[in-house]
Amino acid sequence: MSEEKPPTGTLLTDHLAHWAAVTPHTRAFTFVDFPEADSLGRHRSLTWRALDLRVRAVAEALARTVPPGERAALVLPQGLDYVAAFLGCLYAGVTAVPLFTPDLPGHEGRLAAVLADCEPACLLTDTATADRVLAFTAEHALPETALLTVDGLTAPALAEVEPPRRPAPDDIAYLQYTSGSTRTPAGVMITHANVVANARQGMAGLEAEDPTTTAVGWLPLFHDMGLVLSVAAPVVGGLGSVLMDPVNFLLAPERWLWLLGSAPRVVTAAPNFAYDYCVARIDADTVEELDLSGVSVMLNGSEPVRPATLDRFRDHFAPAGLAPEALCPGYGLAEATVFVAADPPSALATGVDCDPDALTEGRVVPAADPARATRLMLCGAPSGQRVRIVAPDSGVVLGEDAVGEIQVCGPNVGAGYWKKAALSAEVFGTRAPGEADDGPGWLRTGDLGALHGGALLVTGRLKDLIIVDGRNHYPQDIEETVQQAVEAIRPDRLAAVALPGPDGAADRLVVIAEHRRRQTADAEEALTAARAAVARRHGLRLDGLRLVAPGSVPRTSSGKISRAATRSRLLSGGFDAVGSAR
After folding, report:
1. What own/partner pairs with CB < 8 Å and gap ≥ 24 does 27-30 have?
2. Which of 211, 231, 249, 507 qualifies as a cystine partner to 218, CB 3.0-4.6 A?
3. Cis omega before residue 304 (within 30°)?
């Protein structure tokens, strides 16, 4: 690859044009699908020049259909067409809205709500999906909208198409709809400057700037981490990108790991559940056949990252040559484009054993008793941005080892929420008491954490916090305790929530948990075991345990448990309990 680099401060599409000119025949993006259950994978690739041609074709079609600044919703499957459609929107100065096809299980309502909210002037899809998209919009009484199928647009004659209007860096490049873990999905307005800045921050923070690096991912491209890691960062850095569909990962997670062995320096990312899923589904014989020695980074961006998950994955896949330091805890959110901080791969991920009683009081104190310690993973120092911790009630900036709300300031912070001025004012551009009213202000993340030795510790979500007798308890800690105490509970398929007590009494702690497939438990026995474990570990009374069928506990589009949705469904009587005790 050429040593020449594109100039700083340019648009994402300027980087694409640069690589198409400098390394036109280098493979840029590869999509791997698995047409049969035993398939080894069918690879389709585009060079930088071929990708640039397809992107310009999409841009030319959009220019004839959609005025600059209007929105185009991406309603098509994961693959090379998705990449071309997204970049084509940016090239044409049209605001992209990365979404998914109507057949994504469990998310039909979310798709309809987002399409109604973003009011697209055009729907981008492919030939195979077009009829389903039209039927979906009619079924949900959505306005008739122009529809373009992107898979038939490429043609050499369109090679010299120029954009109708060059976007400014502060123009909106796309709307990144949040996964909805704590509120109704809202569209974060990500500018052209935001996405380029965050791509650079991510590559620097993950030490992934070597030109031989390859991004390998199955995360959906409508998700913030999937879009930035698998599309934006490769385009900015001129890196290779290998994509697969999330469904093919869920059907056979070893497919992801096989692809990780296809390049010498690989960067990838996944949430907690994916790492645990690999451990549960991939046997020792298959591990022996894998080669993970070329993996540089396996980012875990959950909130928070579970140390036990990292340990299990590291031990299970050590025989495949996985370097222990490749597992990197990280932190990010859609409102900051995605990437904020990560523990670098040049050293082993570091955990901090915290005194649980001090944590409930909002302090990070080393644990005197390791058996009772709450272990939190350091997520590294912020990359190209600033992070501070403030008291949630007063906004006062806190010092080291004090737990409060995480706030972020940097060129990657989005411009606000689409059509939500009041919410934008509440979340974006906030200031501490007495702070000068100049500069960009700070992003309220809604996440709780602390700075420890300059690195970020994430403790949980502010809105998920369970407060009993004035003490803070983190639901993920309670959930971990309950799933260890009751064997019949599916790992990571449960939610601890606080429900209002009768007649204004104190909140009640209740856990809703999916039982394992083909396995049930006596509800009273399960509650007894869980209640004893929660009391011993957390000093809390567990008022109720409801066992529900597999697949019942609500999750976000990125696979995280949605505690807010779980609580709402429970209060409205929306769960059919297999067993319930209280």
Report:
1. 27/240, 28/234, 28/240, 28/241, 29/80, 29/83, 29/234, 29/240, 29/241, 29/242, 29/243, 30/240, 30/241, 30/242, 30/243
2. 249
3. yes
